[in-house]
Amino acid sequence: MVSNIRQIGRKGRKKRGTSLVEAIVAAIIIVPVALFLLDLSVLVLANSINDKAVKNAARAAANQPDGASAWQAANVSLASFRSSPIVKSLTIKSFSFPPSNALETVSCTTKMEVKLPVPFPGFNNITFLARAEEPIVGHKHK
Amino acid sequence: MKISRNDKGSMITLATVLLLFLIVLGLGFIAFLMFMGGQSETKNATDAGTLNVGKKALDDVTVNLGPQANQQIYRDVATDDPHAPNGLGGNQINLRRINRVWAKALLIQANAEDARIKGSAGSGSANATQAYNGAKTISDQLSTRLNNETNLHGFFNDYASKNSVRMLGKSAQIKVKSGANWQTSAMDRGAESNIYIPDNSAPNRGFPPHLNLNNSNFTQSTRSNIPANASNYSFLKGYNSIRIGNKSFWFVPFLYDAKPHLVSRRYFEQMQPASNPIAWTNPVPNAFSTEGIAGQTGSVNETARSWVLTNPRQTFKLAIPHSFLDIQLDQMKSKWYFYPVGFPIKTQERNYNYIPTSQSSISFPGGVGCTSVSSGSTMIGTEVAFRSLDHIIFGGPSGNTSELESYMVNRMNEMVTEVGESKSASDLHRCLRDASTTAVLAASQGETHFYMFSPNGKDVVVRPKALAIAQAPWLATKINKNPDGSERKLINNAKSVMLPLPSPFCTVVPLPLFVMVTNLKWGTHHKDVWWTPGTGYNGNVGKVRVFRSTKVNSLGVCVFP
What is the distance of C-alpha B423 from the center of its chain? Predict the structure, then answer.
């Protein structure tokens, strides 16, 4: 009987040990996947925000009559952006507003710097570029 | 106690299920985010394409003028230049210009109707009908083209395709989704069109004197914040029947200086002629709806719709550009009257010009009891010598010049194409007092013509033929056109005492044995003025004809003592 009790005790310790190992192994797989998904979500959201920002900037500029006010309007449209530990910056990378009626397109490219909440080796900071083109409606007919 | 094999692997199973669940949930969430982002990108790209549709529909959907005369008369408004210097204009009408076409047709009709009211329509009414039919044909064609979605697809793709929809896939692109959602609408009904009409500084707001524009046909800008420079401007109303005579004229509303912009679906659909009918048979639309579809092959597609209200941001004045007024000064005559039998008999008529000359006449017997009566030397032409054209037309003897003045000011306003510019009676007299007219008159002989026109759409000048063509070459092909109305006398024999007074005595030779009892001489100046209305159909908006004469009376009476 004593021998049986000892055998059961050994088997119980073995089971607990197996579960612990399994939990650790599972965690090693699940946690990185979860963190990766978190990073991916951040990237998708950041990209979406950047798309929206460049669209707003281009549309604000397209409503202006000249390049100077268009540049100002584009910047004002981004003024509401506040940097955060994740989205570090949002700036206009390139901007084009034709000087006359000859060309009718304003194009704008914004650059967004995103720091991943869970850095992966080699993927700590991601830069997003978004470009939008809008027909200029602010030009007065000459 | 036996431990089952299931108990051993429970943690691995749970972890595997959890992992799979987490992956599916996470990927599902990301897919959802990308779907939402893709929807937003599709909407943004559609908006950009739609704005471009609104913008390009103004200029790039065109109708060519037909070869018929009643369409070719609109060449001078088939241009964005309010007053194209060469006068040739263009050959294409678009949404920006369509109101110019209707405006010119309206003024032609107004001129014809005014003439009809005064019984001098001539062929003006028929020409006005022709002009109306031409404008309607052009307008209907433009409406058809703007309502054909395939004419707009390219404008949509130009911009929609340049905007990324990468959340729907790397190779995803947006393109036109053809179909019933490409529609048009007639928005801002009753708001201002882009046709400016003069304020009250121009008599009758620039309309012919016997025709009043109903107050319900024009409006100030209906914008909530009217730009300061337009606060006093008035415009013809859009999508509002402006009835003159038996014809309705229509204009497309464009809020003053508003930009093409996206509008709500609700307002767009409320104003569609199908749901909210308009009396205009084929209304030219000012708003457009579009639909785009984005995605890539084998993937989920997103569609988006957008609605735009367009505006050319260009205002034109109600005008007949490149029109002119003919001023004809007939050969002046001196008329010599004698009284051989007690009442005056005209014995001679002689020409005179704008430099005074000494003339005389003699009549046999010329007076009761006279062998002859001679007027003696009389200076003729003093009333017109070194005077301006203004004096020749309006100066003494004046007569009632108010109607003539009204017509001439009206026609001046019809020539002017610059927004904000209007002409008054003082502008007319200033124009006619131009010193050059005095010099030209001094050198002229016989029938003399002057032409009133606007060389730049703002100023109005009056010049003799050669100078007029030199200053405005476009006049060369028009200047010989006659007005299409019939002539009506506005001033009938206005009369004044001859000034300076000539010698009050004529020379009398009595019959033998008779003695002279009187030898009086006196003179009078006379003026007749006619007005021939022109509708402007051929460029001629009217003709003023002036005939001046001087009557010299010589009364000699001799009696047997």
Answer: 14
Q: What count of other Cβ atoms lies within 10 Å of the Cβ of residue B83?
A: 22
Q: pLDDT at residue B214 above 50?
A: yes
SS (H, E, C) B25-83: HHHHHHHHHHHHHHHHHHHHHHHHHHHHHHHHHHHCCCEECCCCHHHHCCHHHCCCCCC
| Burial class (CB within 10 angstroms; exposed 0-12, middle 13-18, buried 19+) of B465 | middle
CA distance B490 to chain A (A): 43
How far apart, in whole angstroms, are the C-alpha atoms of residue B363 and residue B335? Answer: 13
DSSP code of residue B557: E
Q: What is each CA distance from A126 to A39, A44, A47, B333, B374, in whole angstroms?
A: 11, 12, 10, 97, 114
Q: How far apart (Å, rounded) are the C-alpha atoms in residues B528 and B547? A: 5
Round the CA-based radius of gyration of chain A to a whole number and report it: 28
Contact B253/B192 with Cβ under 8 angstroms?
yes
User: Burial of B318 by CB count in 10 Å (0-12 exposed, 13-18 middle, 19+ buried)?
Assistant: buried
Chain centroid to CA B489: how far? Answer: 27
> How far apart are the two ends of chain A, measured CA to CA in Å?
107
- Residue B31 Cα, gap to closest chain A Cα (Å): 9
ipTM over 0.85: no
Strand partners, B491: B529
Residue B422, Cβ density class (10 Å: 0-12 exposed, 13-18 middle, ≥19 buried):
buried
Helix locations, B366-506, DSSP H:
389-394, 402-415, 425-432, 435-443, 465-471
Establish if A19 touches chain B: CB-CB under 8 angstroms: yes
How sure is the predictor about B446, in pLDDT bands with cuts at 50, 70 and 90?
very high
Kindly report whether the peptide bond that precedes residue B283 is cis, defined as omega within 30 degrees of 0.
no
**Which token pair is B500?**
């300076």
pTM: 0.88
Residue B4 DSSP class = P
* Euclidean distance between CA atoms B501 and B497, whole angstroms: 8
What average pLDDT does the segment A61-83 reach?
Answer: 91
Question: Which of B13, B46, B26, B84 shows the shortest CA–CA distance to B456?
Answer: B84
Q: Is the pLDDT of residue B274 over 80?
A: yes
With beta carbons under 8 A apart, name residues in chain A contacting B55: 104, 135, 137
CB atoms within 10 A of CB B353: 19
pLDDT in tens, A125-139: 889 998 888 899 887
- Does the structure show a pLDDT above 80 at A22? no
Question: How far apart are alpha carbons B213 and B206 in whole angstroms?
Answer: 10
Contact B15 A135 (CB under 8 A): no
* Among A41, A131, A133, beta carbon nearest to B33: A41
